[in-house]
Amino acid sequence: MTGKVWNYITDKLSTEGACHFSLLDPDPLSTTIEDVVEQAKLAEKAGSDAIMIGGSTIFGVIDDSVRKLSEAVDIPTILFPGNITGVSEHADAMFFMTLLNSTNPYWIIGAQALAAPKVKLTGIEAIPMAYLLVAPGKTASWVGDAKPFPRDKPKLPAMYAIAAELLGLKLVYLEAGSGAEGGGVPPQMIATVSQFIDIPVITGGGFNDAKSVVSAVEAGASIVVQGTYIEKQVQKDKGKGLEVIIKALKEAGAKRV
Ligand code: 1GP
After folding, report:
1. pLDDT of 209-254, one tens digit each?
2. Tens digit of pLDDT for each residue in 39-80?
3. Which residues contact 44 (CB under 8 A, 6 or more apart)?
4. pTM of the full predicted structure?
C-alpha cells in the first residue's frame, strides 16, 4: 500500500518517532463548522500532524464540512468514520476500520461492505486499521456493540492486535473512548500490545495532558490522538497548551528514532 497519506505517516514515524493527530467532529448539534475550522487551523499551527474527521454519533460528517476542513489546512485530513455515513471524497484519506472486538458482525465487516463501493468509486486513499475498544469505551463502545477490554488485561488486545497484523491491517487503534476518564489507555496495555506487533499503534480517548501523551509514546504508541482537549482548549489559549503537549510528544518520539 503506497498511498500519499500512508507514505506521509510512515515517513514522519521514521524521522520523528511519533505523531500527533487531532480529532475533530463537525457535529452541527454541538458546534459550528466555523469553530471546527478554527480548531483545525490552531491544531496545525501547534504542530499536529494530521486532522482526523469523525465521531460515533454521526450528524456532522457531511461533504461540505469535510471540504471546508480540507481547504483550511495543509496537513492531511483523514476520515475516521463512525458508520457508512462517514465517507466523503473531500478528505485526503480515510481509516478503513474494523471494530474487531465488537459482538456484532455489522461493525466488523457489514458496514465496511456497504461503504466499500463508494470508497472505491471515490478513489479516496483507504488505510486499513483495526479498531480495538478498551474500557470504558464510552459512546463508541455503546454504538459499536463492543466488549471493551478490561484495563488490567493487556494480553486480550495483544491477541487481537497480532491477528490484525496477520490479516494485513496497517494500524492498530487502541481506543478508550472519547472523553474517557483515567488518562487514556493504560501504558502497560500499550506496551504489551506494541511488544507483539510491528505495525504502528495509534491510541486515543482521554489523553488530556502532556504527561499521559508522553507515557503513551514511551510505552510504544506511534500516534496519539486528542479530540476533547482540542475541542475544549485550543480556542481558549490559541493553541499554546497544545503546542507544549506536541513538543513533549515529539521529544519522547525522538528517543525512539
Ligand atoms: C476518540 O480517541 C479519540 O475517538 C479521542 O478521544 O476525545 O478523549 O481525546 P478524546
Report:
1. 999 999 999 999 999 999 999 999 999 999 999 999 999 999 999 9
2. 999 999 999 999 999 876 655 457 889 999 999 999 999 999
3. 51, 73, 74, 75
4. 0.97
Query: In whole angstroms, what separates CA 48 from the centre of its chain?
Result: 12
Burial class (CB in 10 A: 0-12, 13-18, 19+), 120: exposed
Cβ 255 vs Cβ 24: under 8 Å: no
Tell me the residue range of the domain where 176 lies: 4-254
What is the length of the chain? Answer: 257
- Residues in contact with ligand 1 by the CB-under-6-Å rule are 23, 175, 178-180, 204-207, 225-229
Closest ligand 1 atom to the C-alpha of 180? 8
Ligand 1 atom nearest to 205, measured from its CA: 6
Looking up residue 134, the CATH number of its domain turns out to be 3.20.20.390
Give the angle subtended at the CA of 45 by the CAs of 40 and 51, to the nearest 5°: 35
Which atom of ligand 1 is closest in space to residue 226's alpha carbon?
A: 9
CA of 74 to the centre of ligand 1 (A): 22
Report strand pairing: 50-53 vs 93-99: unpaired
Residue nearest to atom 2 of ligand 1 (CA): 204
**Phi/psi at 118 (nearest 5 deg)?**
-65, -40
Helix then strand then coil, % of the chain, to nearest 5: 45, 20, 35
* Domains identified in the chain, total number: 1
Give the residue, out of 27, 48, 52, 175, with the most ligand 1 atoms within 8 A of its beta carbon, to mutate for a pocket test.
Answer: 175
